[in-house]
Amino acid sequence: MSDKEPSKQIIIQKLYIKDASFESPNTPNVFKGAEWNPKTDLNLSSTHVPHEDDTHEVILTITVEAKDEDNVIFLVELKQAGLFQITGYEKEELETIIGIFCPNTLFPYAREAIANIITKGGFPEFLLQPINFDALYKESKRRATAQGEETNNDAPTETTH
Question: 144: part of which helix (H) or strand (E)?
Answer without folding.
Answer: helix 133-146
